[in-house]
Amino acid sequence: MADKTKEPAPRRAAERRTHPRYGFNADAEVIEDVSGARIEARITDISQRGCYVETARSSPLGTAIKVQITTSGESFVAPGRIVYSSDKGMGLTFGDIEEKQLERLEAWLGSLRERDWLVQNRRRTQRVIMRVPVRISGQNFVGSQFEEETHTLAVNANGALVALSVPVRKGQVLHLLNVAMGDKAECVVAHLGKRQGELLEVGIAFRLPNPNFWRVAFPPRDWSYGLDEF
After folding, report:
1. Which residues contact 45 (CB under 8 A, 6 or more apart)?
2. pLDDT tier at 120, thresholds 50, 70, 90
């Protein structure tokens, strides 16, 4: 008798990513290291590790390149390599990024994370106003480790809104502990909100969506009673 056990469904690419990609429109120039050939392109998405460009001409896989991305008068330059190629565009992975260029990339990604976080949290079906004891740890502005006991103001499958007294910045990596359950997750600061006395509302996003972290069933799509916008 045949084994009818189903093979586990493959994990979605988005769930496998430790460096999420964000939609991003900007002009770009890709320069091949060896030939010096220059390819005009258009960025359509970007992450900490690389980007995808739309272009009329592609280069072979493995080609070493330099990419320059320009938007709103600001430019980011990094070495890289072509890891995907088609007749419509190329996927580029970044090499070693200089510190100043990395700061520019992180500033862009910080804005993109906040945009996506705000979009997710405007959807009433994905968040619940809920006070959960948590412990937040990370590094402060001078590089020293900190740890703060606090609570959530609201939660969803993608992260939470928490109250913090320690100053943080967009894009900063934090470690989150669900005190009651003992679960831990790596997060990034996606949004800086209102100040309530000595506490600041901080939106944090999981590196990957984690709907089971809070042990709650999030409301169905047609349910909206009792939920206010952040």
Report:
1. 21, 22, 23, 24, 51, 52
2. low
In angstroms, rounded to a whole number, what is the distance separating the alpha carbons of residues 118 and 137?
A: 23
Contact 67, 29 (CB under 8 A): yes
* Interval 118-143 mean pLDDT: 76
Q: Which of 116, 108, 104, 137 is nearest to 191 (CA)?
A: 116
Q: Express as a percent the part of the chain with pLDDT over 90.
A: 47
Q: How far is CA 3 from CA 6, 7, in A?
A: 8, 10
In single-letter form, the type of residue at position 109 comes to: L
Query: Would strands 199-206 and 159-164 be described as parallel, antiparallel, or unpaired?
Result: antiparallel
The separation between the first and the last C-alpha atoms of the chain, rounded to the nearest angstrom, is 55
Helix, coil or strand: residue 107 = helix
Bridge partners, residue 45, by sequence: 23, 52
Distance CA 228, CA 4 (A): 46
CA-to-CA distance for 169 and 122, rounded, in angstroms? Answer: 22
Q: Look up residue 60 and give its two tokens.
A: 């072979």
Picking from 211, 213, 210, 207, the residue whose alpha carbon sits closest to that of residue 17 is: 207
Tokens of 105: 């990339």
**Which residues touch 150 (CB under 8 Å, ≥6 apart)?**
133, 134, 135, 136, 162, 163, 164, 165, 199
Residue type, position 225, single letter: Y
